[in-house]
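Quality-control log, excerpt.
Job 1 of 2 completed; input and output follow.
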Amino acid sequence: MPALLAVAAITALRLLWLATNEPNLYADESQYWIWAQELRGGYYSKPPLIAWSIAASTALCGNGEGCIRLTSPLYHAGTALILGAVARRLFDDRAGFWAAVLYATLPAVFVSSTIASTDAPLLTFWAAALYAVVRLREGGGIGWWALLGTAFGAGMLAKYAMAGFLASLLLLLLLDRPMRAALGGPGPWIAAGLGLLVLAPNLLWNLRNGMATVLHVGENTNLDQGVRFNPLEAAEFLGAQFGVFGPVTFALLLGALLRRQTWTEPRLRLLALFVVPLGAVMLAQSFLSRANANWAAPIYAAGTVLVVAVALGAARRRLLGLSVALHVAAGAAIFLLPPALAAAGVELPRRLDPWMRQTGWDRLGARLSEVAAANPGLTLLFDQRRDMASLVYYMRPHPFDARIWAPGPRPRNEFQMSAPLRPGMAGPFLYVTRQRDPSHVLSRFASAERLAEIEVRTHVNAVLAYSAWRVEGFRGYRD
């Protein structure tokens, strides 16, 4: 009950913040909202669960920024409570309380709870699958196999990083006798069947669309551009985890993984096995090419429980309290300080603004809406995915019929797949670009007329600068 009350209080504050503070959507969030207008089994760069989640929340409370982000704090609340349940089953009630509270206050969770992202549902279903594994080790029946398969399939619908769960599960089966004992009977087959059944919509969509999402995930690793062996990238990725998981917490996690007892005590080893494989793959990825800091996010499900168990076992509860306090202070600085400074008339420079990429798009959309209204009959045309996503959301009426410049032999993003400018589409178009010299685009039209130059000041030292053109007579991408 204390864990439930603490997580509920934290979540209520996050929902209140979303209702009263609405930074502009980041481009990826805008794109997910666009996807939610046409529900499918998959999209170019992501599986479909993020779009389905946004469709559900916006059906409930509308298309405002806070409502688009509504499911994120709810997913994270669910994850915190499930991890608390994992810790209680493995250890005791005290561990359950600290696991739930520590996860709910992680720096990455503070941020992820206020944006629409694929990590939020991924972590919920990763934690649910982990709980099923814990129950199966205890001799649980077919129902826990069903939960394992369903959670795995749902996690794959959120983000393909869920596949890393299988690697950890296979290692556990090799090293853990109670888990091997659970293999008898039809349970594993039920789990596999349910996992495939849940994932089926995305599998079918990929088969019908040239495995677009799977290929994109492969391209996202950048390994097709050659191996770079970049230790600085690896060091940066590793250093970023102190920010993602918290400085004290990540230090405790590294210390726990280096302890011999972690690998000899079955419960601790179980948790470590759901940290190390994916963590090692992401570290290697960062060394060979690049890896975003959040790509390692799933390791912090079991990692949170492991840190709590080791800290409590070593009588270091104060370190857990210190971590929670530091995380709450950092969260307050990110979410309360910028609006407080703005109310006091203090302008932050762009590099110090935590919302620097989510400012000014509403004003830019309003200005471009005026240009479009003054020039009726023009179809919007963009040359950047991020610009198209943001402005389709922030222009009124929403230009859902917009097109994107797509000169390559195959699509490189969702818009180039679903809404490309094709030869034979003569126009006229309202071409919107941030490029200072868009002559390579303008030269492919029979006529081009500049309609507007727009600058929207976002910070004391930054502006969004765009030009709008009337273009007509598209002659194709090449002669």
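Job 2 of 2 completed; input and output follow.
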Amino acid sequence: MRILITLTAAALLGACAIGTDYKRPPVDTPAAFRDAPAASGKPLAELAWWELYRDPVLEKLVKVALVQNFDVRIAMARVEEYRALAGVANIGSIPLISAGGNATRNAYSTVGPTPFPSTYPTVNQSYTPNLTVSYEIDFWRRVADLQAAARAQLLATEYARETTRITVIANVASAYFALRTQDRELAVTQRSVAAREKFAVLTRAQFARGVVSALDLTRAEANVAAARATVSDLQRQITQSENLLQVLLGQNPAPILREAATEGALLPESPEVPTGLPSALLERRPDLRQAENNLISANAQLKSVKASLFPTISLTGSLGSTSATLANLFTGPSKVWTLGLSALQPLIDPTRNFYQVDAYSAREKQAILSYQQAVVQAFREVSDALAARQGYAEFERAQQDQVKSLREAQQLVMKRYASGYSSYFEVIDADSTLLNAELQLALAQQNNLLALVQLYKALGGGWQQVAADAPKAADAAADASH
């Protein structure tokens, strides 16, 4: 008993957390993002996704996906799992109370090797209810560190859910922009088919008059067939893109209702907005906060394992009653109780405990490196997206100039052909070159939009607004299901 008292006093006087408290590891944060444009106003990542994309069809699709997408729903279920595990960990800080009881009836032999006296009752019975309380005194914060680790894991899972939501928004926007680009390509190609058919009719009439050769006629008809084949292939791509979008919405393949493609831009031009400071990226991107909470959990687990090397001190007590008859079960003389203080020091196979410390130390090192790697990768993703945004924007402007010039050239060639100054091959070449340039312009616009999507995602934009917009998303999903 004196040893237990000494241990308790020493623990009370010198109780402290075992191990080093968590500190965010150092990371090399640049002063500004590479190739970031000079702009003023609200940082891009602080814009809500519906403010950035500004398309009513896309807005509805994203809202439905945030409710019905399977990846989002799986991530939400995983949060529920870790919330329950955190609740299990919290039980360690409260006393464990158990209740029990037993009733026995025994019969003894009167002719055995040691028979009972004839006056002794051969049948006895007893009733024993009891209540037991046990509580671990967390001197070394072993239980507290386990709880901290569970809370950090819960936070990491919640940030993983937000990362999934950002990814779903980006995937839906990318798939929608690809679909709208295919709509544009289909409209351009159908217009080319109509123009080539008219030209084929003109060539057929000229062939009948002997103005052009049979070679010119067959080339004209082949040109029409090639454009029609492109139309069929684009229709296949559009159907597959619609199916992809519906799966992202958590729905079966079906058409996507939208407006017809136009000659204008796919979406209103977004203004140039600042990217913000790189240091803010550490707080803004949920995947970085997920990595940091994984590190916090690893640190807490290591401290808990170190605390396991020290004695576990527990208070135990029980209160009950024992009686041979039910009538006397809860009377004063039948009461029984115990109260104790115990200390358990692990002694068997102590080397295994030290190996556990080494293993969890290695896990903490891995978590530190994973966090630092995630930060560097995040800076790279922002820089890549900025470069893509700038490069594709310049490419789109140049492609627009090219299309404008080629349209003028085609009109001149057609006039010259009608007057007999240009050959049939010049007409075919001008038409094919213009069609290819218009298709390239549609792809350039798509790439420019996709670069904006990737930049917004790389900056961690919009995830704070996702939670605030959850009721609207649920309403949109309900409307879509009717």
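Post-run check on job 2. The chain has one domain: 2-96+138-311+351-481.
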